[in-house]
């Protein structure tokens, strides 16, 4: 499964749990699935906005009973005030 968006975003499922198809697999984020994401960082939402870096990482669907996603994303800046810098985020995002 690949998902694309705007600004240019690419997400692809690279692994999933070896489970019998059940209600967890009816979701866009079935339990045990791992997705890799790559996205451009821009100065604004317009397609013509200046690219200032890239976001790369992965997220894991880790909630068996309720939707909960673990995210690990690195933001690398290649232009502008923060050129040459990067920051990373590791977070869990439970359904509320």
From TrEMBL:
Cleavable signal peptide: none
Coarse class of the protein's main subcellular location: secreted
InterPro entries: Dirigent (IPR004265)
Pfam families in UniProt: Dirigent
Alphabetical UniProt keywords: Apoplast, Secreted
Subcellular location: Secreted, Extracellular space, Apoplast
Domain of life assignment: Eukaryota
Gene Ontology CC terms, in alphabetical order: apoplast
Subunit structure: Homodimer.
Annotated family: Belongs to the plant dirigent protein family.
Function: Dirigent proteins impart stereoselectivity on the phenoxy radical-coupling reaction, yielding optically active lignans from two molecules of coniferyl alcohol in the biosynthesis of lignans, flavonolignans, and alkaloids and thus plays a central role in plant secondary metabolism.
Protein name, entry field: Dirigent protein
């Amino acid at each position: 499964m690949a998902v694309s968006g705007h600004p240019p975003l690419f997400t692809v499922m690279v692994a999933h749990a070896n489970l019998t198809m059940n209600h967890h697999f009816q979701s866009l984020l079935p339990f045990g699935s791992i997705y890799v994401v790559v996205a451009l960082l821009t100065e604004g939402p317009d397609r013509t906005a200046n690219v200032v870096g890239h976001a790369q990482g992965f997220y894991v669907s880790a909630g068996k009973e309720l939707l909960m996603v673990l995210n690990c994303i690195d933001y690398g800046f290649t232009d502008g005030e923060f050129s040459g810098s990067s920051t990373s985020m590791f977070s869990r995002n439970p359904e509320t």
